[in-house]
Specification:
single chain, 4 domains, Helicase, Ruva Protein, domain 3, alpha/beta, five-stranded parallel sheet, 14% strand, Rossmann fold
């Protein structure tokens, strides 16, 4: 049972209140002043404190302030025989759970005790959950690039500044966005993601702003959009560079006005949303070519944050690899020097995502003993893919343009699907292609990959 501390200078109150709580099977500690109480809290797992207002050496209100600042997870119930309304209001404002007047009522004491301990339990569970979420979004690495990213996250997370995250596919842009949200004042509010490459232009407005029932043929019921779902939280636009100019204009207006309208509605809704965006494209070049709005780019690019590819921070590879192996419940793995050198020298075109896939293959396939270069080469599929690339290169330059284009497209899509273990939806998101378009092209090319994998299955 939870431990409860009574701080009161009256021995009779300490005994009577303590006996009541002990009859309910609680573990009870007693202290005659605040300093003695602090000593007990330092040693014992106290969950609830009954604190008298009038105490020697340090008054109860001052003691309450100390308790809330040093042990924020504790619940404190104030007790007094000389209470005033002003005193009770002040105590509650300082964080007291409740205020009880003497003489104490048995039923009131037990009810307040149960409620306070329930709240204390919920606080601890919430704290543990947030801690786990934070660890899930931990940025792994000691390279200079990663240290810079951590510093930027530390600086910008507490603000509402918009951040534009750039980097190659698989480099960890979504992870950085979630880390910014998790370390912000909006951490307990929604984090809503929209993959701009995966939503057809005909549906993007409904996805962003929602719709009313009957707004269009398939609108069978009212639906909230991503802006509304992210209200008071964070909205993350992944692959923002793939958003159409029409959708860009609507997003710009929503960001400027902090107000949206569902499709089919004339009522405006105020929103409070922090915007984060990510892309693997050069948006400045896209602006120059007329494919991206300059005004939206400037709105998004308040804080630019570049995520370096894995090949530019090879010193982080082993840290990440062992992190992923631990994630797959494999911790006792050793690599010889040649194996590590191959890991460092490999170009990692799929970045962190590819490294994680490699760790998963090791976790599944490794039979024990020290892992050598040949085993790593098999895990990376580098020899097989390398031969395929050389063969493709030689063939392409001997073909007419139209045939070479088709052959390249076929091999490119086969490679990407193989990299994603046959997951067509994930492949489409990664390469910035609509799912239906990818399915159509795979069907056109026969639906089978060079590595024997069914591409449509």
């Amino acid at each position: 049972m939870p431990s409860i501390l009574i701080i009161d200078d009256e021995p009779g109150i300490r005994k009577t209140l303590g006996d009541i709580l002990e009859d309910e099977q609680y573990t009870v500690w007693r202290a005659e002043d605040a300093f003695a109480g602090f000593d007990i809290i330092e040693r014992e797992p106290i969950r609830l404190v009954f604190l008298d207002v009038l105490l020697p050496h340090m008054g109860g209100i001052e003691a309450l302030e100390k308790l809330r600042s040093r042990w924020a997870e504790l619940e404190v119930v104030m007790i007094s025989g000389h209470a005033t309304i002003d005193m009770a209001v002040r105590a509650v404002k300082l964080g007291a759970f409740d205020f009880l007047e003497k003489p104490l009522s048995l039923n009131r004491v037990l009810t307040v005790c149960r409620n306070a301990l329930t709240v204390s339990k919920l606080r601890r569970e919430n704290h543990a959950l947030k801690k786990n979420i934070s660890s899930d979004h931990e940025i792994i690495g000691n390279s200079q690039g990663i240290q810079h990213i951590r510093e930027v996250i530390h600086q910008v997370a507490p603000t509402d500044a918009r951040v534009l995250i750039t980097g190659e596919n698989g480099s960890g842009k979504e992870l950085v966005a979630r880390a910014i949200h998790t370390n912000s004042a909006r951490a307990d509010k929604p984090f809503v993601e929209l993959n701009c490459a995966a939503i057809p232009d005909t549906l993007i407005e409904s996805e962003l702003f929602g719709h009313e029932k009957g707004a269009f043929t398939d609108a069978l019921k009212m639906r909230k959009g991503r802006f509304e779902a992210a209200d008071n939280g964070t909205l993350f636009f992944d692959e923002i560079g793939d958003m159409s100019l029409n959708a860009q204009a609507k997003v710009l207006r929503a960001i400027q006005e902090q107000r949206i309208e569902r499709l089919g509605s004339e009522k405006s809704l105020d929103i409070n949303v922090r915007i984060l965006a990510a892309t693997n494209k050069d948006l400045e070049k896209a602006c120059a070519e007329g494919r991206f709005r300059h005004d939206l780019f400037f709105r998004l690019n308040v804080i630019p944050l570049y995520i370096p590819p894995l090949r530019e921070r090879s010193e982080d590879i082993t840290l990440l690899l062992f992190h992923f192996l631990k994630e797959f419940d494999v911790e006792q793995v050793q690599f010889d020097d040649e194996a590590l050198q191959l890991l460092y020298s490999y170009s990692w075109p799929g970045n962190i995502r590819e490294l994680r896939n490699c760790a998963e293959r090791i976790a599944i396939m490794h039979q024990g003993g020290v892992i050598g270069k040949e085993e790593i080469a098999d895990f990376l599929q580098s020899r097989r893919l390398g031969k395929a690339q050389v063969s493709l290169h030689n063939e392409l330059f001997e073909l007419p343009y139209a045939q070479a284009k088709d052959m390249f497209e076929k091999q490119y899509l086969e490679f990407q699907v193989a990299q994603h273990q046959g997951d067509i939806r994930r492949t489409a998101e990664t390469i910035g292609m609509h799912l239906t378009s990818l399915q159509g092209k795979l069907k056109k090319h026969g639906g089978k990959g060079r590595w024997g994998q069914g591409l449509l299955g």
